[in-house]
Amino acid sequence: MTERVPLFVTRPTLPPLAEMVPLLEQIWQSRTLTNYGPIHCRLEDALCRHLGVEHISLVANATLGLILSLACLGRGEEIITTPFSFVATCHSIWWARCKAVFADVDPVTLNIDPAAVERQITPRTRAILAVHCFGVPCDVAALRAIADRHGLALIYDAAHAFGVRKDGRSILEHGDLSILSFHATKVFNTIEGGAVIARDRETKNRIDRLCNFGIQDEATIPDIGMNAKLSELHAAAGLALLPHVDAAIEARGRVSRRYWTGLQGVPGIRCLCAPDLPGHNHHAFPIIVEDAYPIDRDELYTRLRAHDIFARRYFHPLIADLPTYRDLPSSQPDQLPVARDAARRVLCLPMYPDLDADNQQRVIDLIRSQ
Length: 370
Ligand code: T4K
Hints:
The chain is of the alpha/beta class. Helices cover 36% and strands 15% of the residues. It is built from 12 helices and 14 strands.
């Protein structure tokens, strides 16, 4: 009998080891290990070309990229954001010495609802921090119009959105700043890492400076910065992986189509992302467990675990219901009905390029057989 392998919600994509070795040799040779070395610069250039953007600053992780971005733009202390995200989105607001104000999400995309954003704007609002959740683009046109109308900064947490395109253009072209995550669990990874995408050279230079303690040159330190630099080793992992990322996204697309077909017609199971969504990166495969399904989301999660299938309830608990945020006025029980509903229904199924059809069928069969 073949061994039943555990299926995790994701598995990191790694470059062939042989393609990593020459980069490691260069690092050993140069002894430049960090602080904007040659591999760091090569990865920034390669990412600009790959993603079709002009100004990228690599960072040690997306959380630091978010904090620096929020600190960099605008005045006022309130940041309007989505409660339906990974905690890093909201925690970054606190670390940027600002206050989170939640706005509810759209029931179809689960991204922040522009109309709800507009209702939360006050004279104290500094910025809108929206998330392209699961790689599904936000309503960028409506958010841009609101930001312009009220003179607010617009920042996208694009942690899930590597390679996502909308109307044939990179989603990263929208907003004043966008932040990618290159964590091990993402479509493209540098093990830990991330990037801030800016509109102009001046803002990129400011982000670079903030990543390096605020240092402009040996004797000039105009800003209060921190250490958010990406090391040469991490940059090397990214440089070796980048040529393989398009194939990895295509493979994810095949996994996505198998789920879509396999789960068709199951009463009460709705797949959030259609596999033919143009420009999608298949970052995750979230399903919504509706009332018509025989058991609720948590029971399905538990039954899958009993069969070594480690699907994840991203994003539960809702950020607004965590002890640190639940007393905020925008977190009160009568607020955020759509996000609260999503937090108890969404389940992310295993999704990674090399998830083979036989193992994937275990997931589909279990969901169909409840
Ligand atoms: N904004 C958004 C919207 C985000 O989703 C995130 C991060 C951020 C901002 C912040 O980005 P970073 O600062 O991290 O760059 C994971 C990730 O740690 C986190 O990066 C990610 N979002 C979040 C959605 O997921 P956990 O606590 O669920 O990860 P963990 O360790 O349980 O990993 C999930 C599964 O992946 C494991 O069951 C097995 C597999 N795995 C994981 C790792 C780390 C591996 O096979 N190998 C590995 O090395 O948070």
